[in-house]
Each structure stands twice: as C-alpha cells, then as structure tokens.
Design a protein that fits this description.
6 helices; eight-stranded mixed beta sheet; 10 strands; Rossmann fold; globular; about 220 residues
C-alpha cells in the first residue's frame, strides 16, 4: 500500500540497522505494510476494540476492516492534514499536508468502519468516555506521523491499553528523524507504564512495525 521513491531497505541506513539489531532480533521480517497489518491481525490473542489513528484516504482502515469483518474499526482523523510541520531530517512535510481536498467529505469505508472526525485532543477523550468499561484495545494502528500527535494519542488511550494489545506503527523507523516521532512517543509511554514491548514483525523496506504489549 505504501511505496515512495525514497523508501530504502533498513540495512542501507546505519541508524535503522542499529534499530533492527537492538529491537527486532526476534521479530519477523516482512516486505510490505499490508503484510505487517495482516501478520499483526493474525497474532491477536485478546478481544477488544479496533482503532486506527490517522485515516486519510481510508486505504488502511478498509484493509483492517476486511481482515476483521466481525469487528467495528474506529477511525480517527481531522482530515485536515498535519497539524504542524513534520520534520524528517532535512526534509520537511508542511503543516496541512496529507489531508483531504474536502475535509468535510470523509473517504468511503466498509460497513464495519466508524469514522470519528476531529483532532485527537478532542475526539479521543470523548471516545474513551463512552467506550464500554469492560473493553480494552485489542488492535491499534498508529499512523500519526508526528511525535505530538502520537504522544497525545497515548495520553488519552493509556487506560485502554493492556497486556495483549497489538500496536502497528506506520512510521516507527527507517527514515531520517524517526527517533523524534512515533518511536519517541512510544518509548515515553512505556516509561510511564508497567508494560514492555514484544516486537512481532517489521517492514524491511519501509517504516511499519508491529508490537505486542506485555506486562513488565
């Protein structure tokens, strides 16, 4: 689903190679974001909520929905693009990029997808308040791009994450500046929690990583 001309195998970047050597020794090497999502979905061991943070065109949420037809997939997005510049090393993706031309018209989605429009700081607390008290997150797709958005998401969703939750990050590593965004926010979440990560699989050509949350 993802391919850009600047995608490179992780071993061609020394920092990404170090990341793989440090964190991914027991994780399965996968060749696409679709494989990572399928692999993660196949390794679910708990029931619960399915969420995607960052929907954009709806491609990945529809893929997740097709893999899990008996679950409702909740998708969160402002559809207005990045809330701030995304600094990727020397490359800067400007504020407002990655949004829809008409944010008031969300993308078409499958019957088991529910889209929740708004900025995370507004939509996520409201969702958590109305979520069933006996349900936690089973599957979380984090396509937040930015540190600030990812940190905001973990702040508001922390109470719904438990041992067994699987998180798929869309931009976790293998690009300039990765350590300042989803990667950083996740490690801050771990430091503030009683959890540790089990890295399940990673895309060797792009940036996706699947993680299972474990009790420390």
């Amino acid at each position: 689903m993802h391919y850009r001309s600047y995608n490179t195998p992780y071993w061609e970047n020394s920092e990404s190679q170090k990341m793989a050597d440090c964190y991914f020794q027991h994780a399965k090497q996968l060749c696409s974001d679709a494989e990572v999502l399928k692999f993660a979905s196949d390794h679910l061991t708990i029931d619960g909520l399915f969420l995607e943070l960052g929907v954009c065109t709806g491609m990945t949420i529809n893929f997740i929905a097709a893999l899990n037809p008996h679950h409702t997939i909740y998708g969160f997005d402002s559809f207005e693009g990045l809330p701030e510049d995304w600094v990727c090393g020397k490359r800067i993706i400007p504020k407002g990029s990655l949004g829809l031309k008409n944010p008031s018209q969300p993308p078409p989605v499958l019957h088991n997808v529910e889209l929740i429009k708004g900025w995370f700081e507004d939509s996520l607390p409201q969702f958590v308040t109305r979520a069933p008290q006996d349900q936690s997150i089973a599957f979380l797709h984090v396509d937040c791009d930015l540190y600030s958005s990812t940190a905001c998401a973990f702040k508001h969703l922390a109470a719904l994450i438990k041992a067994g939750t699987i998180i798929v990050f869309d931009e976790f590593y293998n690009y300039p500046g990765y350590e300042n965004h989803e990667f950083k926010a996740f490690h801050e979440f771990l430091e503030s929690s009683a959890f540790k990560p089990e890295f399940l699989g990673y895309n060797i050509y792009h940036q996706q990583v699947a993680v299972r949350i474990l009790d420390s």
